[in-house]
Amino acid sequence: MIAKATLKRLEKIKPVLQKYGVDVAYLFGSRTDGTAYADSDYDFAVLFKSYNHQYHNITLAISIQLELEEKLHAPVDILFYKKYQSSWVLK
């Protein structure tokens, strides 16, 4: 279960995600299962409205990461995914 304090912090990052064209942001890891410590990081996988491998690169990832860290006052890990990217599905 996500802590109320975490949900409140997540509201602060919506403008950052919108600024960079993020369509969906998935929070995963310790912040979602109740095992986070005060200094735990935030783990995000993000999908973009449109994806261009030349634009969506490490430089952009670092820019987004730094802005999210500023808003959340905690370390952030971010993974980029193309929309509907699924080369393998476990059934």
From TrEMBL:
The keyword Ribonucleoprotein does not apply. Residues 11-84 form the Polymerase beta nucleotidyltransferase domain. Transmembrane segments: none annotated. GO terms for molecular function: transferase activity. Keywords: Transferase. CDD domains: NT_KNTase_like. PANTHER family: NUCLEOTIDYLTRANSFERASE (PTHR43852:SF4). This is Polymerase beta, Nucleotidyltransferase. InterPro entries: NT_sf, Polbeta, TA_antitoxin_MntA. Signal peptide: none annotated.
